[in-house]
Write a structure and sequence with these properties.
Oligomer: single chain
Order of helices and strands: HEEHEHHEEEHHEHEHHE
Strand order of the largest sheet: 2-1-3-4-8-7-9
Shape: globular
CATH topology: Rossmann fold
Helix content: 25-40%
Largest sheet: 7 strands, mixed
Strand content: 15-25%
Distance between the termini: 33 Å
Structural class: alpha/beta
C-alpha cells in the first residue's frame, strides 16, 4: 500500500497552543511542507516574533531565534549576512510587523535583504486581547475600537505588499488566504515561490496570509471563515503583486 500522506519532517510532534479554529496551525504546516519539499530544513533559521506565534521553537524542527517585538527583519538580516548559506525566514503577525516593526520591514525590503517574510494578517493583536492593528478593517469592532475603527481617527487599513511594491529590493510580494482548501493550496505555492526567490539569491520576498482569529472576533470557526471571505478579501485582494522572471 502506498503512502498518501505522512508527517511533515520540519514540524515537531507537539500539540499547538493556538485557539480552536486559528489559522496558525494551517500555515505552520504549509511552511514545514515547503521547507521539506525544497530540502531546506538543515540550513533553515526561523525568526520568531512577539505575538501568538512566539512559541515557534516548540513546533518547528530547525533553529529558531526569538526577536524583540517588531525586530524580526533586523535579526533575520543579521543572520543572513553573517551566514549567507542559511535559509532565513521570519513569521510575523500584523501587530508585530505592520506597527512596531514597520520601519524594520520597509528598510529590509528597500535594501533587498535576501530573507523571506511570512506575514499573518488576522486584523488584530491576537495575543494581547484583540486590540486594533494597522490592518483592522474600517468599522471593525476590536477591544480598542468598541464602536468600530474610524478612519478619521485611526487611519485606513495598511496594505503591506502594495506599500512595498515600489521598492526595488522587494522582488516577490503576494497575498494569499487559508480559508478553504483551494486557497490553502494556492498559499503553499506562493510560499514556495517566495522561498525560491531567497534560495536563488534574488532579493527580498514576502507572503501575506489572510487568517482568522475566532476568539478575538467573537465568532466560532465557521463564522470566522465566512467573515474573512465576505469582508477581508474585498479590502485585501488576493494574488501576486510583484514577481520576478524565472520564479514559477
Amino acid at each position: 500500500m502506498s503512502t498518501v500522506l505522512k508527517k511533515t519532517r520540519s514540524l515537531e510532534d507537539a500539540a499547538l497552543h493556538y485557539c480552536p479554529g486559528c489559522s496558525h496551525g494551517v500555515v505552520h504546516r504549509l511552511v514545514g511542507e515547503a521547507i521539506d519539499e525544497m530540502d531546506l530544513r538543515e540550513q533553515t533559521v526561523g525568526i520568531a516574533p512577539v505575538g501568538c506565534s512566539v512559541f515557534l521553537d516548540a513546533y518547528f524542527d530547525f533553529d529558531i531565534i526569538q526577536a524583540a517585538h517588531g525586530r524580526a527583519p533586523a535579526v533575520a538580516t543579521g543572520v543572513k549576512r553573517a551566514l549567507p548559506d542559511r535559509f532565513v525566514f521570519t513569521y510575523q503577525g500584523d501587530g508585530d510587523l505592520a506597527s512596531i516593526g514597520m520601519g524594520e520591514l520597509v528598510h529590509a525590503a528597500a535594501r533587498g535583504e535576501r530573507i523571506t517574510i511570512i506575514f499573518i494578517n488576522n486584523t488584530n493583536y491576537g495575543m494581547t486581547g484583540g486590540q486594533m492593528a494597522p490592518t483592522t478593517l474600517e468599522n471593525q469592532v476590536t477591544t480598542t475600537t468598541p464602536e468600530g475603527r474610524e478612519a478619521r481617527l485611526s487611519g485606513y487599513p495598511i496594505r503591506v505588499p502594495e506599500l512595498l511594491c515600489s521598492l526595488q529590493g522587494a522582488v516577490y510580494l503576494s497575498r494569499v488566504s487559508v480559508h478553504n482548501p483551494k486557497n490553502i493550496n494556492k498559499a503553499k505555492k506562493s510560499i514556495k515561490k517566495a522561498f525560491q526567490v531567497q534560495r536563488d539569491g534574488l532579493g527580498f520576498s514576502l507572503v501575506e496570509i489572510l487568517s482568522v482569529c475566532p476568539t478575538n472576533w467573537r465568532m466560532n470557526p465557521v463564522q470566522s471563515i465566512q467573515w474573512l471571505e465576505e469582508n477581508m478579501i474585498e479590502v485585501y485582494p488576493l494574488g501576486e503583486l510583484k514577481t520576478v522572471q524565472g520564479v514559477s
